[in-house]
């Protein structure tokens, strides 16, 4: 029983990490129709920025971790804004060009990270509390899973509240429904779309810092490896559905943990089979609108 509890709770923690990466992808696609293959680069850069903060403070304190999260989110947002302004803004409604540009950016940034920080992984340390465990129904759960879950819930609630209860959120949702009408009212929809990219980049930056705590290191390939599961989660949940991404993140991560333990490390295979099954039964995803 304790083993099952451990697998379930750690699976939820991993799902929280997947959601932090997938939330930005889902938000940007759902509101703007942009599939951003460079999203993993935002995550990696946020992780390196957080590591630079923590190594300069070198005290393993909560203050160091909080500052790393803030800096990681800020860097992710700034890079996302630059990407939208310089590249994506000229390519709305041109999906093939969007894919080519963002894939090229992803490859170029990995080479850039190699040149700046080297090809070897750099190791990350955090508050001692994160390395400790607490008993839950007889299972010893690492504390970093609780941190991941808490931050993911906060990000989900924050994004939903922003879109529903702020003026910018209203403009963004209206611009998605009828961009020409909103523009005719004298509202700059382009600025609203830039804000969407910034939110997605900030979520990726936060995810990068927490991923470095989860895995214990940062490498140039960190974002690319997590982006694969983020796309799987986004497709299973339904492209553009934030709630669907949250549900799919939990389902994918828990299933992956269970399969790795009970089925000889076949977690990745089982996740791919789940993706295939969802696409066959419901191509729009769990929470996506049917065609």
Based on Cα principal axes, name the global outline.
Answer: globular
Q: Which value, in Å, is the CA radius of gyration? A: 19 Å
Q: Could you give a short account of the major beta sheet?
A: 2 strands, antiparallel
The residue ranges in which pLDDT falls below 50 over 5 or more consecutive positions are: none
Q: What is the CATH third-level topology name?
A: ABC transporter involved in vitamin B12 uptake, BtuC
**pLDDT average, as an integer?**
86
Class per helix and strand makeup? mainly alpha
- Give the tally of structural domains: 1
End-to-end separation in angstroms reads 43 Å
Helix content: over 70%
- As a percent range, the share of strand residues is under 5%
By CATH, the architecture is named Orthogonal Bundle
Please provide the ordered H/E string of secondary-structure elements: HHHHEEEHHHHEHHH
**Lateral arrangement of strands in the main beta sheet:** 1-4
Strand count: 4
CATH class placement: Mainly Alpha
DSSP helical segment count: 11
In a nutshell, what does this entry contain?
The protein has 291 residues and is mainly alpha-helical. The chain contains eleven helices and four strands; from the N terminus they run H-H-H-H-E-E-E-H-H-H-H-E-H-H-H.
């Amino acid at each position: 029983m304790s083993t099952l509890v451990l697998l379930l709770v750690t699976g939820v923690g991993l799902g929280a990490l997947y959601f932090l990466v997938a939330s930005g992808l889902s938000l940007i696609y759902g509101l703007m129709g942009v599939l951003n293959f460079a999203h993993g680069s935002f995550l990696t850069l946020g992780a390196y920025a957080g590591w630079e903060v923590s190594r300069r403070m070198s005290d393993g304190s909560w203050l160091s971790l909080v500052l790393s999260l803030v800096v990681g989110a800020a860097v992710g947002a700034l890079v996302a804004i630059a990407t939208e302004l310089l590249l994506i803004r000229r390519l709305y409604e041109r999906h093939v060009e969007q894919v080519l540009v963002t894939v090229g950016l992803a490859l170029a940034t990995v080479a850039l990270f190699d040149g700046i920080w080297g090809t070897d992984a750099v190791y990350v340390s955090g508050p001692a509390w994160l390395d400790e465990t607490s008993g839950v129904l007889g299972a010893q759960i690492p504390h970093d899973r609780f941190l991941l879950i808490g931050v993911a819930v906060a990000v989900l609630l924050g994004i939903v509240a922003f879109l529903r209860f702020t003026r910018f959120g209203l403009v963004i949702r209206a611009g998605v429904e009828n961009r020409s009408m909103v523009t005719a009212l004298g509202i700059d929809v382009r600025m609203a779309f830039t804000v969407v990219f910034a939110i997605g980049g900030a979520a990726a930056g936060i995810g990068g810092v927490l991923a470095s705590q989860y895995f214990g290191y940062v490498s140039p390939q960190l974002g690319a490896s997590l982006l694969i599961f983020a796309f799987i989660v986004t497709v299973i949940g339904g492209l553009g559905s934030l709630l669907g991404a949250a549900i799919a993140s939990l389902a994918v991560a828990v299933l992956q943990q269970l399969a790795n333990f009970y089925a000889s490390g076949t977690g990745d295979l089982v996740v791919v089979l789940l993706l295939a099954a969802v696409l066959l039964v419901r191509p729009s995803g769990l929470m996506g609108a049917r065609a």
